[in-house]
């Protein structure tokens, strides 16, 4: 008589032998259907899927190309079930006018659920409203704004500038990976402000190396789920715990360990009298798993987006020395000659610096696209029909490259486009939705802009930065935020300022 294990093995072999041919046939038919079906727009799906990697470094550049050539600045990709738009009227309609019809949606929550759980970026309705209300109470006050500025200023003076000084004096030519530096810098700041804890990551290369790798991998593989032609494939891989889904599960386990450690340390230190974001949430929430999801969302928001924004900003500054000179000239007019760092009020007076930061974000938003799901059938302002359950994506990266929005010089890094007689002039947030817009606009927008400005100012006043080797255009890794493939290797040199 055959053993129980032998019978089970026979069953599974038979199961796979019978089902795999049917599954492969289904996949083939689906792909053929997608290949030959009209997209109801100017671009065919098979052209989309096969062409981008041959002509462009980044898939977002390919989407930009498609949207630039669409009369409506909107396309629909049947194979992905995704309507993608760079039309400001559509963006305002989705994010404001018909906000209730375009939530994150259950499909999106499922894709990122293993990683972000019930964190603010992955939920709708009451869960989103609760987290947003709690965060807004913390971020709206003047005292918190000043506290955040003080944290960033201290981190720059005590860690960032000394680290760059050390790199400039090193024997290896002053080479350093700025993307890695900004990740560590952002993680320190975020943990201090959000959790009241200081990981000290800029002081050593050890504290978050394993965490950083796992966090980046979890972000990358979660994003790949969203881009999957057949969602069924990643769901099957997750069920059997194989391939990329096994890697994702292992990475998330490491991330969860760090998030649990943050919560545990916070409990040890006590949170009842503290006013950081995590303390506010811990006073209301007893479910540690929910708290862990909130912590991970804070880390995603505070570490990755800021690191991405600073990395591309310095990539642009390194290739535009005239812009760096103007930043220095403006700071010399506003600040005293012997002043080490700018005050919050002085930062607000630097209109050109503000324009530089906004121009950088226009061209290289940290979140290159964002998706919603339609609750009911609808028609966008440009006439595009949206079916119930359809994924709808607005594309800030592509919008920053639309001639119809920014003019014929839309591909140029030109901060002056934001100025009128030397004064910064904002535009509609629906034309440049880097921080989202409407009801779900980023609560940390103003603090993020201030952080970018004070970092940029502090570094360019003290150092010259040269990218090694110089790149004509950046290549991004796939992920929830735009990170440069291979980092940003830079040569740091201390400035010699004439007396």
UniProtKB/TrEMBL annotation:
A Pfam family matched by this chain, by name? Answer: p450
**Keywords associated with the record:** Heme, Iron, Membrane, Metal-binding, Monooxygenase, Oxidoreductase, Transmembrane, Transmembrane helix
Keyword Transmembrane annotated: yes
Binding residues for heme: 442
Instruction: Write the signal peptide boundaries.
Output: none
Q: Fetch the Gene3D superfamilies from UniProt.
A: Cytochrome P450
| Transmembrane domains' residue ranges | 12-32
The cofactor(s) it depends on are: heme
Q: Which GO terms describe its molecular function?
A: heme binding; iron ion binding; monooxygenase activity; oxidoreductase activity, acting on paired donors, with incorporation or reduction of molecular oxygen
Query: Metal-binding as a keyword?
Result: yes
Superkingdom of the source? Eukaryota
Family the entry assigns: Belongs to the cytochrome P450 family.
Q: What is this protein called?
A: Cytochrome P450
**Originating species:** Populus trichocarpa
Species classification: Eukaryota, Viridiplantae, Streptophyta, Embryophyta, Tracheophyta
